[in-house]
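Hi all, long-time lurker, first post. I run a small reading group and we've been trying to get comfortable going from sequence to structure in the token notation. Rather than ask abstract questions, I figured I'd post a concrete chain and ask someone more experienced to write out its structure so we can walk through it together at our next meeting. Sequence below, copied exactly:
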Amino acid sequence: MGRAWRCAGLRWSARGPELAWDGGPRSALTWGKRVAFGVADGGGRRCVGARGHPCPVRAALSARTAGARCEECGRLDRAHSVAADGIADDPRPYRVYLAWFGPGLVKVGITGVGRGPDRLLEQGAVSFSWLGTGPLMAARRTEELLRAALRVPDRIPYGVKRAVRAGLPPGEAERAAEIRELHARAVRLDGWPETLAREPFRPVDHLDAFGLVGTPAAVAEVTELVPGGRVGGDLVAAAGPDLHLSTARGVVVLDTRLLRGWELVPARAEGAAGAQDGAGPAGGDGAPPDVTLPEVTLPVRDLTKAAAPLQDELF
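-- Answer (accepted) --
Happy to help. Here is the structure in token form:
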């Protein structure tokens, strides 16, 4: 079988998207790069643990959920999460933002100043603007104020975001219109904490960063991994945790959250040379290299038909 690798998820930074692997290696992803791997035979999906510690029971997980932790490890992870108000005394500055994912899909949220726009890229935000900057609890109170006053949520299921991606307005101004109006309403509200500095409306558009300009619409999405299954294609776009891969059947979306908890191995294409035992499934210095593979043999959902989204993890 060769060496097996465990994916730690898709990471975004100023350099673009990267696949992270347990142990530290990362595979830089660029448009046109071949992404291919197989799922190890004879195994299943296991909990990835929490806070740097392995799951003590190596709990089995459903292949279809976006979360990669069992109930106990998920509880431990959330106990130290800003999203779950588990860190009330964090001294770092935070920003409040409005993010737009498609027509009618706007959310309010907070992120650490040190992270810049990375959190918005990870969520798949098509357009966003900062609202204010200040201490964590001031940012959290402002988020709650805006959620109630503007009637916008602090969470949108990822499957809903994905479903509208193929029909986005063509112009940046159109994509920023909803958050422009909500930003104007937000700064006029009373009740903002004094320690939170309001910021002007400056929309940031991510359609180019995601590679979605002029990219063919996806025809299918991977719903789960299975032992012995394979996936491979040329990367044409990436948004949030999703990779858009050009395959023999068209563009197929792979939610990289589904990879966590599985052992991944090099995928050997039929008739292809260069796939060697011991090499891993993706690419980059010290990380798994990519190989040629024209097909997806994992279960997929046809995106040309209406379907319910995958269940997301809680945060």
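A couple of things your group might point at:
The radius of gyration is 20 Å.
The chain has six helices and 15 strands.
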